[in-house]
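FAQ: What does a multi-protein file look like?

Like this. Sequence, then tokens, then the next protein.
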Amino acid sequence: MQRLFSMFPRGLPGLGLLLLRIAVACAVVLNVYARRGELATWLLVSSVLLAAALFIGLLTPGVALLAVAANLVLPMSGNVGFQSAGYIAMATINALALCLLGPGYYSLDALLFARRVIDLTPPDERKPL
């Protein structure tokens, strides 16, 4: 993950990525909820797990790519009107943007894969922060 993204922005850019992750997760859930009677149970459960992984920021680039695929495949299961086609297009573009941007600081990916500073100086010689 660290090789994919050299930084995990914090502050307002990190908050923007958090909001983008939440928006994509909500779009996946709403897309599945609208077709809940037409889809198999395993597809419903996997979509909820996909949304949960997006929400917490776990393996964000790969999961966002799966969200792009889900947004493109799920509408083919039923009739899509003009308004819902626009919604699906926007949800797909948001998921693709999230895939390209990365998870941000406020994610599980940042906790697991971000760079860390290791201070090897003895404790008595360290400068206070």
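And here is the next protein:
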Amino acid sequence: MRGIERVTAPGIFLHYLMRKLFIEEAVRRSLATPASARQVVVIGAGLDTLGARLALDGANNVRVVEVDHPATQAVKCRALARYGLPREGFSFVELDLTVRTLAEALGDTDQLDPRLPAVFVAEGLLMYLTPERAADFFREVHQISAPDRSDSMTVKTRRLPGVARIEV
């Protein structure tokens, strides 16, 4: 890890750890009471295990949907199979954001109930989108979710000439 930090960014692993702990705590807080969110949608989950851990510990009878690129999901599904995942209440929806929208991918399934409160997590995803596509992404989340949703998204920014601010 130290070698990687020497050639990338000092402290990046601590940053990852703190970010992951903060997001998990925020999601679990959103699920903590019977009147709170009943669904978690992890967009671009990659190999992160938040969704799987929520499904395995039966986090307050919550539905977990992971939305990600088909190639990434294939690797993850093979790894999770040894733990009996996916199973009822935990599902995968394939999405290549360069081809389809989040609304299209979720609209083609019955995995998300738009009437129920949900927590949307997009960690380490938005930096790969153009500002215009990111703004569209936020509009999609707003459009497909119940009014009392929670969002947890990480945003990496740099100040570049000519880059517009994202407004939704």
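Q: Is there any per-entry metadata?
A: Some entries carry free-text notes. For the entry above: Residues 12-30 form the longest helix (19 residues).
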